[in-house]
Structure formats: structure tokens, C-alpha cells
Design goal:
The complex is a heterodimer of chains A (314) and B (539). Chain A is mostly helical. Helix content of chain A is 78%, strand content 0%. The N and C termini of chain A lie close together (12 Å). Chain B is α+β, with helices and mostly antiparallel strands. Chain B contains 17 helices and 22 strands. Classes of the chains: A mainly alpha (314), B alpha+beta (539).
Chain lengths: 314, 539
């Protein structure tokens, strides 16, 4: 197991280096200049150059990249061009906020997805299964920012039960307050994943229920709970793979939900930084998201290895 | 069959429990929530900004004029400030940290400023001539230990005409310009003065400890979430009635609407225009006012059909500005037929009126040799500060121009790319007839910056290649006229010439749409990009 994980960890280095190079080059190719976001439109060439020099953007690209890389190794993510604050001060809280939202959405969508999927597989003809099927399709089909607006309309504006934006009330704070702010974004962010998970769990479990080992277990008089345990264990590798991908999606793809709920997460931060050509934030932000992706993949693969000896020994 | 039925029971119970949990979560801890939030903090004004992040509170805050509006002018003062207390006339300049000033008769480049005495920065540092010199060194003297290239860069053209400056005595400062320059006071309104002690103490981390002399004091900020300011009890001007101002960045218009409707904020910038009637009927205060903003097309007058003045005038006659303002934008704009709006000191009532007249447009096109019209490309932004609702508005213009025979291909590009393209001038490798970009016109500088021959690309921002010697002469005279009345009269003449020559298609002036909760009192919506929060109370 240790060998398995360390082998995967070694692959980390080329992956992240590759991501850094690609992002760096892509940013150079994007039209637009961060200097334009700083100086007013009617600035002279000289005023523009002074800021360009100050930012180090007058140096050759490879020098800029090496400079960034060396500082990154020293744990220095640089300073935001536009916000004039250390990138780490901006990124790390944003990553935390996004992880919080992603974890809550994952808990809701994986938990409910598993329960509904299993139920629908066992009772494919029941009215509830049909209802869940339709709702699942709606969940996949409905854009999450649209769902977000509807949720805000109902629960914030009409009923006044829950806050519509931000992470904390003015002058508020505390866990309960953050929890209340988390509810609507969580629901909005988890709808698509819930739809995907439900359908995937249902079809996986339904397929397994037709297999000989299930009939064998039932013939031997195994109780339903035990049969379910066996079925789940066989279905887990597939479910885990999809869940891992979906979790990655929840981290990287929640920019619209973050925007609608003014949730200060990393998606919103990177999106905005791209608009302002705030290269240090984009560069380090994408790297942080890449690390998160790789770590999740590693976690999923390790779980695979735990659940399935064939993976461990391959 | 037994196992199945017991399973069914188990799942039914699990499901019920889950639903129960969810509904408890939704309702149980919800009460006393959003509605209470609004009223909980009496004396606290919570503003939903349209920016996606809170402005960095240095002396030239980020997030454009929205940053200046809610952070710059609240935390700091300049020598000169905008008087924003009246809504029935354009905002004018008034004394700020300088109580009075005079312009030398013998040396037209010399200005003397008499500073307000007894003023203290929020950290207790006394304000005096040294603070002014320190602030100017920070922006203008690259070898000063506290020189800040980024802040200097973003203060930009406001610094361009300052040649030198000196302390005359403890409470007097002299500023010298590069040649006679009567627009200096407008420039000084953008130069805000920080506490020298705070800048020295915090150095590179100053933006986390902004310290000025303004009506509000910085308390705290959380990136992406909020910036909190408390009233400055010792403010030299009108002490704010509010105890606290909280800024919240909510970039999505629908989310801002939801936030004010649910009582989470009591001030929201630019709600969706289609919500105006609903908000009014709910008792919210929907405010609009004219201010120096224009939404135009900058035409490429150097090449192609737009070189002909008649073609440019034809396009100006072809657009139904009333229709766009009323139908498309729900009254959030007024028609623009010249650079400034009616009621402004630099607006000319003698200028070409450009009513909606497609027949006249067709006639002018025929006279110019385009009886069957022509095709052209417009570069337009997809969003961006001041650009209003560019996608819908450009489609509206496209339809109107098509009706007179001008077939416009719209090329939408993202805002920063468009801005870069604009600063690089019209593309050389393809035909582009116009660039749609909104630029503020708060200072008389806008005239020479956009229209004078001296500002022709690549030396300046006159990228369309427009040039008129008579206009140059008038603008030059305005820039060196120290009598405000005479200067305004000259700028009025300039407005008429620019309207007649039509180097731009003038479309609309924005009306600064914002909505306030019913219990907000004492705010005057000024004819300005900025806002005075000192008179506001919550009752």
C-alpha cells in the first residue's frame, strides 16, 4: 500500500510541473495586459512602462516563469497585481471556502444519491423510483445558477428563512451562521451531482442485482442487509470513480454558484483574476486546484486499492 | 419475500428521516434570519456593490470608480473634493483638505493652497503641508523611499501636469504645472492623501491598514466578503449620521436584487432593469440621475466609409435612442446626442440634435455615395465597468443601422481584450469601423484626451484619427483659461463642434440606477459617479 501511494505521489511532480507550464504559456497567449487594469485608459506609454517594469513584466517569459517557480518552491506565491496583497492571503481562505461548499455538496449528493439510487434499483417499478428518475433528470438538466436563483427567490426573498449571499451575516459569525449561509449554495451546487450519482448508483446496483452471486446469497437465505452489503461492495469501485470525478467537478465547477451566492470561493477568485489578467492569482490558483484534483484522484485510487485487492497487486 | 419487504421498510424510514432532516434544517434554524438581519444593526448601512471583490483601500482603490465612490472618498480626502450634496446640478469641486487656493497672476503655472487646520488622520497624525508633500512624493518622486509605482500608475493622468511642488509654510503648499493649465483642480480631486505615519509604519502592507482623514474610518476587510468602516467622530466636515458602513461585493445583478429584497443589504447598485417597477411597488427607493457618463461608438474616421462626415451623421440619425432607453433599458438611461447631457455646463444647446430620423439617415448615406449602404464591423465588449448592458444594446443598434442600410457585424470580445485593443488603436489587418467603449467624462480633460489632434494615436487616446484645427484651438484656449465661465463657454463650443463632426456615434447616457431600502433617509443622488454618505440616516 505504501509503495502504491508513494509511486502515485512521485507522479505528482511531472503532473504539476506540466500544469504550471501550460497555464503560464496560455496566460502569455491571452490578449490583454494586467497593466491596463492598473493604469487608466489615458495613461501615456511612459506611465504604462513604469508599471510594467514595477511588475517585472518587461522581462523575458522564461525569466518570469523561473522567477515564479523558484518563489513557489520557497512557499511564496507572489503578490496579486490588482489586489496588491500576497496571493497566499487571497487563495488559501478561498480554497477553504470552496472545499467547505464542495464537501457539504458532496455529502448531500453522495449520501442522497446512494440512498435513492439503491432504493430505485430495488424497486424500479415503484412510483417513488419513477419520481426520483424524473427529478434526477431535472437535476442534471437544470443549470445550477438557475436553480440557485429559484432557491433564493423562495427561501430568501419570499419566506425570509435563509440568507441569499455571502458566508456570514453582518456583525454575525459563528458556526451556525455560516451553516445557514451554506444551505442554499449546497443545494444548488449538489443538484447536478445528485442527479448523476442517483442514476449511476441505480444502474450499477440494478445490474449487480441480476448477477448469480446475488441469487446464490438469497438461495442460501442471507438476510436482505447482508445481500445489500455484498452488492454495495461489488458496486463501490464504479461508484467511487464517478464520485471522485464529481467531487473534482464540485471544486472546479462551482464558479456560477459562487457568483450567484457571492460565496468567496476559488472559482470566483480565479474567474475574476482571469478577467483582470491578474496572472499570479491565476497561475497559483490553477495549481492549487490541480493539486486538489490530483489528491482526490489519489484518495479514490487508494480506496480502490483497499476495496479491490486486484488493484493493489497490479 | 420477507427480505424485500423489510428492505422496503428500512428505506422508507431512511428516506423519511432524510426528508425530515432537510426540512428541519431549512425551517428550524431559519427563523429570525434574513429579515432580522436587515434591521438588527440600526445605524449600519450595508451596500451591495456591483464589483466582484471589495476594493483594495489604497489612495487609488481598485474596482474603478466604484472603488473610489465607496472606499476612496469615504476613507480619504484630497486637497479638493467633489460637492455631492445636490442632485439638481452637476457635482462641482469644493474645498477639501485645502480650505482655499489661489492661482498666481504673474506666473500662470503657480497655484497656492491654504490647508485646513486642526485636521487629524484617523491614527491621530496631524495633517499639514508635510503630509501633502509626502503624498505627492509617494506618487511623483520615483527615488523617494515611499514611492509606490502601482498607486502612481493607477492615479495616472491626474499627475501628468504637476511639474513640481513645495511646502511654503506649515499650512501652505505651492504646486506648479507644466505650462498654464486650468484643469488642475479636477486632477487634484483624484489625489487622495494618506497618513504619512501609517504609510511608513506598514510599508507594503499599507493596504491592510488604510488611514486617511475621510468621514469614515477603516475597521476591517475580508477578501471577497466585506469591508467595514465606522464613522469618523472627529471628521472636519459633516460628521456621518451612520455608525457603520459595510460593503459587500455581489457581482450578479439578480443576487443584488435578492439581497435587498430579503433585507440583507439596504443599498444595492444597478439592480436588473426589469425589476424597477416591482421594486417601486414594494416601497423601495429606486434612484436615478444624470451624471457624466456616455455610451458611444468610437468611429474609425481614418479609413473606409466612416471617413465621410455625412456617413457618421447618418449613423447618428439612424438610432432610436428613446426606444432603447425606454423599452430596452426600462428608463435606466437617456438619449445622448453629444458628449455631455442636457443640464451640464459643457452641454451645447446649439449642437446638431440627432433625433431619430431614418429617412434623413438614408438621404445622407446616398449623398455620401452609399445609396445601398455598406458593411462594417464593430468591436464590442461583453461586460465591463460603465459598459451597461452591452450585448442587448449592441443588438439594438445593429437592428437600427441595418434599417438604413448599414450592415454591422458585431464582434464581441471580453472586456480586458477590448480595452487592450482600444489602447493599441484600430486593427491594421482587418476592417473595423467602430469600437464600443464607455469612458467617463467627469473632467474637462476628456475633451482634449479623446478629440484633440495632440492626442491622436499613438500619442493619445484619439484612436479614430479625428482632427479639427478649430477644435484644437478652442480646447487649447479652454485649458489655459482661468476664468471658469469663459472655460465652460469654450467647452460648450467644443461640444457643438464634436457633435457636428460626429467622430463618435453618441447613444445614451447612463442614469446610475440604484435602489435603497424604504427606511434609508437623507441620501441625495448626485449628478456624479460618486456618493456622499454623510447625510444618510436609517429610521
Amino acid at each position: 500500500m505504501v509503495a502504491f501511494i508513494s509511486k502515485r505521489l512521485l507522479l505528482f511532480i511531472p503532473t504539476l510541473f506540466g500544469v504550471s507550464v501550460i497555464v503560464f504559456l496560455m496566460l502569455q497567449m491571452v490578449p490583454g495586459d494586467p497593466v491596463n487594469t492598473i493604469v487608466p485608459a489615458d495613461a501615456t506609454e511612459e506611465e504604462r512602462m513604469r508599471v510594467t517594469r514595477e511588475l517585472g513584466l518587461d522581462k523575458p517569459i522564461y525569466v518570469q516563469f523561473i522567477y515564479w517557480l523558484v518563489h513557489m518552491f520557497q512557499g511564496d506565491m507572489g503578490t496579486s497585481i490588482i489586489k496588491r496583497l500576497p496571493v497566499s492571503e487571497l487563495l488559501l481562505p478561498a480554497v477553504g471556502n470552496t472545499l467547505l461548499l464542495a464537501a457539504a455538496s458532496a455529502a448531500v449528493s453522495f449520501g442522497l444519491g446512494l440512498a435513492i439510487g439503491v432504493y430505485s434499483a430495488y424497486r424500479p417499478k415503484s412510483w417513488a423510483a419513477s419520481l426520483f428518475n424524473v427529478l434526477g433528470l431535472a437535476g442534471i438538466g437544470m443549470p445550477n445558477f438557475w436553480a440557485a436563483l429559484i432557491l433564493i427567490g423562495i427561501f430568501s426573498v419570499s419566506l425570509g428563512w435563509l440568507p441569499s449571499s455571502g458566508m456570514q451575516s453582518i456583525g454575525g459569525g459563528g458556526l451556525l451562521d455560516t451553516f445557514r449561509h451554506l444551505i442554499l449554495p449546497t443545494i444548488a451546487a449538489s443538484l447536478t451531482t445528485l442527479g448523476v450519482m442517483t442514476r449511476m448508483v441505480r444502474s450499477t446496483i440494478a445490474g449487480l442485482l441480476q448477477q448469480d452471486f446475488v441469487f446464490a446469497l438469497q438461495a442460501k437465505g442471507a438476510p436482505a442487509g447482508k445481500v445489500l452489503r455484498h452488492v454495495l461492495k461489488n458496486g463501490m469501485p464504479t461508484i467511487l470513480t464517478v464520485a471522485g470525478l464529481q467531487f473534482g467537478y464540485l471544486i472546479g465547477g462551482s464558479v456560477l454558484v459562487e457568483t450567484v451566492f457571492a460565496w468567496p470561493g476559488i472559482g470566483q477568485l480565479i474567474y475574476q483574476a482571469i478577467g483582470q489578467r491578474d496572472f499570479p492569482i491565476v497561475q497559483s490558483g490553477v495549481l492549487v486546484v490541480a493539486v486538489a484534483f490530483v489528491l482526490i484522484n489519489l484518495a479514490v485510487d487508494s480506496l480502490h486499492a483497499v476495496l479491490d485487492p486486484r488493484v493493489r497487486h497490479s | 419475500m420477507k427480505p424485500y419487504s423489510s428492505l422496503k421498510k428500512t428505506y422508507a424510514i431512511t428516506l423519511l428521516l432524510l426528508i425530515l432532516c432537510l426540512s428541519m434544517v431549512l425551517s428550524g434554524c431559519g427563523r429570525g434570519g434574513a429579515a432580522a438581519e436587515g434591521s438588527a444593526a440600526k445605524g449600519t448601512l450595508v451596500i451591495a456593490m456591483s464589483a466582484a471583490n471589495i476594493p483594495v483601500p489604497d489612495t487609488m482603490p481598485t474596482e474603478g470608480y466604484e472603488g473610489m465612490r465607496f472606499v476612496g472618498y469615504q476613507l480619504y480626502d484630497g486637497l479638493v473634493k467633489w460637492d455631492l450634496t445636490q442632485g439638481d446640478k452637476p457635482a462641482e469641486l469644493a474645498g477639501g483638505l485645502a480650505e482655499s487656493w489661489e492661482h498666481s497672476n504673474s506666473d500662470p503655472t503657480e497655484w497656492t493652497f491654504h490647508l485646513r487646520q486642526g485636521v487629524k488622520f484617523h491614527d491621530g497624525t496631524p495633517f499639514n503641508a508635510d503630509s501633502v508633500i509626502f503624498a505627492l512624493d509617494r506618487l511623483l518622486k520615483p527615488d523617494s523611499p515611499y514611492y509606490d509605482a502601482k498607486t502612481a500608475g493607477s492615479t495616472g493622468s491626474s499627475l501628468r501636469f504637476i511639474a513640481k511642488y513645495a511646502k511654503a509654510d506649515e499650512n501652505t503648499v505651492r504646486i506648479y504645472t507644466n505650462g498654464p493649465y486650468s484643469f488642475l483642480l479636477y486632477d487634484l480631486a483624484s489625489i487622495l492623501i494618506p497618513s504619512p505615519e501609517a504609510v511608513k509604519k506598514y510599508g507594503g502592507d499599507y493596504a491592510n491598514h488604510p488611514t486617511g482623514t475621510g468621514p469614515f474610518k477603516f475597521v476591517s476587510m475580508k477578501q471577497g466578503q466585506e469591508l467595514v468602516m465606522d464613522k469618523n467622530d472627529k471628521y472636519w466636515g459633516t460628521v456621518p449620521k451612520l455608525d457603520r458602513v459595510v460593503l459587500r461585493p455581489i457581482s450578479d445583478p439578480s443576487a443584488r436584487l435578492a439581497a435587498i429584497q430579503s433585507g440583507e443589504v439596504n443599498w444595492a447598485e444597478i439592480p436588473p432593469t426589469e425589476s424597477i417597477e416591482q421594486l417601486k411597488s414594494m416601497g423601495f427607493q429606486v434612484l436615478t440621475n444624470t451624471y457624466p457618463h456616455i455610451w458611444p461608438y468610437v468611429l474609425n474616421t481614418a479609413d473606409g466609409p466612416w471617413k465621410d462626415k455625412k456617413v457618421r451623421q447618418a449613423a447618428n440619425y439612424a438610432i432610436d435612442r428613446e426606444g432603447m432607453s425606454a423599452d430596452l433599458l426600462g428608463g435606466a438611461s437617456i438619449p445622448a446626442t453629444q458628449l455631455m447631457y442636457k443640464g451640464h455646463a459643457w452641454y451645447s444647446s446649439d449642437a446638431e440634435p440627432y433625433a431619430y430620423d431614418p429617412d434623413k439617415a438614408k438621404k445622407l448615406l446616398a449623398e455620401a455615395g452609399y445609396p445601398n449602404g455598406f458593411s462594417t464591423t464593430f468591436l464590442v465588449p461583453t461586460s465591463g465597468s460603465g459598459n451597461m448592458w452591452p450585448v442587448q444594446m449592441n443588438e439594438y443598434v445593429q437592428k437600427d443601422l441595418k434599417a438604413v442600410g448599414i450592415d454591422v457585424k458585431i464582434e464581441s470580445i471580453e472586456w480586458q481584450s477590448l480595452l487592450t485593443q482600444y489602447l493599441q488603436g484600430f486593427p491594421k489587418d482587418k476592417e473595423v469601423g467602430a469600437i464600443n467603449i464607455s469612458l467617463p467624462t467627469i473632467a474637462p480633460n476628456s475633451f482634449p484626451n479623446f478629440f484633440s489632434s495632440a492626442a491622436l494615436f499613438p500619442k493619445g487616446l484619439n484612436i479614430g484619427g479625428y482632427s479639427n484645427p478649430e477644435l484644437d484651438r478652442i480646447l487649447n484656449e479652454a485649458q489655459t483659461s482661468f476664468d471658469a465661465g469663459k472655460r465652460d463657454a469654450l467647452l460648450k463650443q467644443a461640444s457643438a463642434i464634436i457633435a457636428e463632426d460626429a467622430p463618435w456615434i453618441f447613444v445614451v447616457h447612463d442614469l446610475n440606477l440604484r435602489v435603497l431600502a424604504p427606511d434609508i433617509h437623507g441620501f441625495v443622488q448626485p449628478q456624479s459617479w460618486f456618493a456622499d454618505l454623510t447625510g444618510i440616516s436609517i429610521e
